[in-house]
Amino acid sequence: MHPIVKLVTQRLALGLLLLFAASVLIFLGTQILPGDVAQAILGQSATPEALANMRAEMGLDRPAITRYFEWLFNALQGDLGTALSNGRDITESIASRLTNTLFLASVAAVVSVPLAIFLGLFAVRFRDRWPDRLISAITLTSISLPEFLLGYIMMYVFAVKLSWFPSVSTINDSMSFLEKLNAVALPALVLTLVVLAHMMRMTRAAILNVMQSAYIETAELKGLRRFNVIARHAMPNSIAPIVNVVMLNLAYLVVGVVVIEVVFVYPGMGQYLVDHVSKRDVPVVQACGLIFATIYIGLNLVADVVSILSNPRLRHPK
Amino acid sequence: MAEALLEINNLRIEATVYAPGEKPRNAVIVDDVSLRLEPGKVMGLIGESGAGKSTIGLAALAYGRGGIRLSGGKIMLNGREIRRASSTELRGLRGREVTYVAQSAAAAFNPAKRLMEQVIEATLKHNLMPKTEAEARAVELFRTLSLPEPESFGQRYPHQVSGGQLQRAMTAMALCPKPDLVIFDEPTTALDVTTQIDVLAAIKTAIATSGVAALYITHDLAVVAQVSDEIMVLRGGQLVEHGTVQQIIEEPREDYTRALVSVHKIDHREKLPEGEPILRAEGITARYGAMNEDVLSDVSVDLYAGQTLALVGESGSGKSTMARVITGLLPPREGTLVFDGNPLPGALKDRSREELRQLQMIYQMADVAMNPRQTIATIIGRPLEFYFNMRGRERDARVQELLDAIELGEGYADRYPAELSGGQKQRVCIARALAAKPKLIICDEVTSALDPLVADGILKLLLNLQKREGVAYLFITHDIATVRAIADSIAVMYQGRVQRYGTKTEVLTPPFDDYTDLLLSSVPEMELGWLERVLEHRRMESAGN
């Protein structure tokens, strides 16, 4: 077997194992919480008899391990259960929420990832000169401000003062792509500013790390332009660390946007999760947890695989 | 006189030095150096480290590493001044008129790109020819340089070819854009001697067929004598002597040049084995961790008290592994060690402190073998405390004694390693080994990181100490000249086995086995036409077979 196939298979298997462990933790976590679904439905004043009846009816009196595997197998088949608070099918509700979240994340990613990498390259090109310092200063400022504050500032400037974009990012299926894009412009901008600094600084550091190599001197002595030396000779050798930090930030764009969704009243996963946590809607919390874990592990898996593929020694063994 | 291709007049190169704990100061790297190179000629630049030879080589591309400034003088290339040329002008000449071959091709090739892409990159960048033509030229160069499968060689990645092949690929890369001048910066220094001779021959052929001019930079006079027309000897950034190859090696005018020419001419008469060996290794077989192959197989050697056994071999021959086995870092799978008549446990943890004391080691890289935050007195004093429980004034007196023994004298005890030169650092390491009063010191390539003259000083010191203290050396090296200078007996190692073993005279006197013959005949000798003679001889031999 080609060593790379073996390595990638190993990573995939490890990812699945990790996902399994995460599902166990999510299930355990919701079990440890005081009270259960029956308690949540019937409220604090329910009689013990009513609770027992309710539990028997919902199968909650069975051992936890049985319930866990039932939940897991259902989830694997796409059935995430029913929400307690409104009795709706979770898979259905989540589908539209997840689509919205992924849409916002994609817009932010499409802007921020190329921009961060370009700024990283640019900062290396003008290392320790004013463009480098300026980029560093701006990105550091944007990462230092709390997200909600950044959100309100953007809202004030671009929605209230300039009226370029709406301040509330409601979207629905009847909107065209451009209308949707217009609606998410502000939250996407804030997210971009939040993740930009981290990716840009890692890109800069990773490339500077290989700029000391002898092959960079070789490239310079061929008469190549400095930017080409950085982009064509240094960059391919720093893909692994860059991809890792990019994937980490992409994961953040999906699972960490709760605050921004609340600020812009955006109907995404984050709001959905927060709403149902406050309603003690355990099945929804479990479902959200599982989806977030899948996305997180999946993206990191992609980072691992790309890192492996970017190594010519593994791709082309002797 | 033909028109000069490269003419350097009164070149001055400076750099800002940031020494720890000091104010940044200006250092003159090259001072008032002039040279003139005509088209198609090869000039050798020779000198020890710090002579400024690489810096001058790169100045021909108007390039300075790090904070180096080309601060004065003229650099004329093809009739125009380039020292103060704009970066656009410089990009136009680098990789087109002048190209560069670096010391370590393994580091100078981009690991993420195929060889062909890198070899033709400069040619394409300067729009010298279309891609197909450039590729055809590269293949032609691969063939001239005797690279295997020239048609498909370029499709490989740098890690897929050997060090010697990579160095030749680098030469192809330099010649591809048909430059007027190639700078060869120690192109064979990192190679084994048997590989070096092939690369040297390939470079010489390539220079001859392409008619390109070259600056050939090296610290090895014997090497540069094979490829150059003229030689410039440099020291401390200044010109010492300039002449034809013949004049430099046959009638050097300056003392420094004479010293370089006569380097490695230490006269050491071997001592014959007598009495019981201090160390006897029998049937040593060893491998690393989960490897399926033995790195050493059935190695048996004896070393007698007060004598030197040299383990000679190329990289991968197992000589350093043998040192690891003897020191106990790598317990052997089979075989036994007998030290001073008693069996020596294979694993380090089973050895007594007394056994540890009697067996010391000196390493190749002196600067990483010492703690940079300890003073010399602490470094040398540590074994005194550890083995002899010496403290205070007694310890200090002994440290000074040892410093005297390594010819460093007063005032060094309170210094830090960073304040010492390479040769002085290695001397401190020797003193540290001696402090334990060992019966055997393992010297692992102790002179290979040093300049020839400094290395000679270390070898002489080791010989003196041996005479005085009666210590035995196990001397591991790839350098035959070093072996001649210090060994009493020799074991030639090849692929983990002892290929040839005996007293120095026995081993170095014909008839040889094939490998020893190849190894010995590949060592460059300081005479004109040596390379051609060896190659001719080898051709006749293979034709005879």
Automatic annotation (TrEMBL), chain A:
It holds the Pfam family BPD_transp_1_N. Its main location: membrane. SUPFAM superfamilies: MetI-like. The keyword Cell membrane applies. The chain crosses the membrane at residues 12-33, 102-122, 134-160, 180-199, 242-264, 284-309. InterPro entries: BPD_transp_1_N (IPR045621), MetI-like (IPR000515), MetI-like_sf (IPR035906). GO terms for cellular component: plasma membrane. Keywords: Cell membrane, Membrane, Transmembrane, Transmembrane helix, Transport. The keyword Lipoprotein does not apply. It comes from the Bacteria. It is a multi-pass membrane protein. Residues 98-303 form the ABC transmembrane type-1 domain. One of its GO terms (biological process) is transmembrane transport. It is found in: Cell membrane. Belongs to the binding-protein-dependent transport system permease family. This is ABC transporter permease. It comes from Pararhodobacter oceanensis. The lineage of its organism: Bacteria, Pseudomonadati, Pseudomonadota, Alphaproteobacteria, Rhodobacterales.
UniProtKB/TrEMBL annotation, chain B:
Residues 11-261, 279-520 form the ABC transporter domain. CDD domains: ABC_NikE_OppD_transporters. One of its GO terms (biological process) is peptide transport. One of its GO terms (molecular function) is ATP binding. One of its GO terms (cellular component) is plasma membrane. It is found in: Cell inner membrane. It is a peripheral membrane protein. The keyword Kinase does not apply. SMART domains: AAA. Gene3D superfamilies: P-loop containing nucleotide triphosphate hydrolases (3.40.50.300). The keyword Cytoplasm does not apply. InterPro entries: AAA+_ATPase, ABC_transp_ATP-bind, ABC_transporter-like_ATP-bd, ABC_transporter-like_CS, Oligopep_ABC_C, P-loop_NTPase. Keywords: ATP-binding, Nucleotide-binding, Transport. NCBIfam families: PRK10419.1. Belongs to the ABC transporter superfamily. This is ABC transporter. The lineage of its organism: Bacteria, Pseudomonadati, Pseudomonadota, Alphaproteobacteria, Rhodobacterales.
